[in-house]
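FIELD: query
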Amino acid sequence: MEREIVNPWQWQDQFGFVQANSLTGVERVVLCAGQTSSDADGKAVHAGDMRAQVGQALDNLETVLGQAGLGLGDVVRLNYYTTDIQAFFGASDVLGERLQAAGCRPASTLLGVAALAFPEFMIEIEATAAA
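FIELD: result
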């Protein structure tokens, strides 16, 4: 697979995302459900702690991707849904460090929402990966 980053501007670079990933020669695409701060039994964990919730949601995403034979470096799109955008920005270093370490520069969308599936959830991360 060949990936070309499409960035007509540079402002997004400071946030670690790109405007688009142009893919050719893709053999496999994995569309992941939104991952939250839940344990292996689906119970919410880290209520009220955005940093821990971002970390747990990323752990869960990596588990799903690993089961599919992929990793964070294969992610080409991330959608973030949060009930608290300011808290999300406050925890963005957790996200940025993990994505940068994996070589992940996804096209991304951030949406503030009124609620997620369970009241304890503050963040949900949805991914598309390709290889």
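FIELD: remark
Residues 51 and 91 are 5 Å apart (CA to CA).
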